[in-house]
Specification:
Layout (H helix, E strand, L loop, with lengths): L4 H7 L2 H15 L6 H28 L15 H17 L7 H22 L6 H20 L4 H21 L5 H19 L4
Helix pairs in contact: 1-7, 2-3, 2-5, 2-6, 3-4, 4-5, 5-6, 5-8, 6-7, 6-8
């Protein structure tokens, strides 16, 4: 089990959560969108939230500003978090617009607020689990969509995401990346903004 747990930290790395949420949203609300539109919006989200940050990480690593894709040191988080804020703003202004993708738009706004809070805490030298922020935010979004769309099959995905919160938390503890307090802080930072913005579309 000790060898398996770290896998969850990579599979549910914060970089991938945006694309998971988008795929989940487009799949269960798929009748509204044609396949070409789904592919187009997913491609944009993939570039902005995965490829660009990964290229930026390689640049930061080459200059010695970060030493791991997990960015365990609080002092190394500031630049990546600032970049993430700007990328989300670009996404919600240009691609995931409120008129076309309201639920997903507010998910990204919630993610933006969570990122800003994590950034502020990093300046205060308080470390929050970015993994827990990401997976808990995705879980709240899935629960909101389940209530909003009333699709029976979504219930299994909601249960799956709730279970993944536990596995991701255990993974971070197993890797000695966080304390229990840091995991709880991350959990709250992920949940609260998503709950606040859920009121705009539920």
């Amino acid at each position: 089990m000790k060898k398996i747990l770290p896998i969850f930290s990579y599979v549910f790395h914060p970089l991938f959560i945006s694309i998971y949420a988008s795929m989940f949203y487009l799949f269960f609300k798929g009748d509204i969108f044609v396949n070409e539109e789904k592919i187009f919006i997913l491609f944009q989200i993939l570039i902005i939230t995965v490829f660009v940050p990964m290229l930026f990480f390689l640049l930061l690593r080459s200059t010695g500003n970060v030493d791991s894709i997990m960015i365990n040191e609080t002092s190394q988080r500031k630049i990546p978090l600032v970049l993430h804020c700007f990328l989300i703003i670009l996404l919600v202004k240009r691609s995931v617009v409120i008129m076309r993708y309201p639920e997903l738009h507010f998910f990204f706004l919630g993610a933006l607020f969570s990122t800003i809070i994590a950034l502020i805490l990093s300046f205060c030298k308080i470390k929050a689990s970015l993994h827990m922020i990401a997976i808990s935010g995705l879980t709240v979004f899935a629960i909101g969509l389940y209530r909003h769309l009333q699709v029976p099959n979504m219930m299994y995905w909601v249960a799956f995401f709730i279970l993944m919160n536990g596995f991701v938390a255990s993974s971070r503890l197993e890797m000695n990346a966080h304390t229990n307090k840091e995991l709880v802080i991350g959990l709250l930072i992920g949940i609260i903004p998503q709950l606040m913005f859920a009121f705009f579309w539920l």
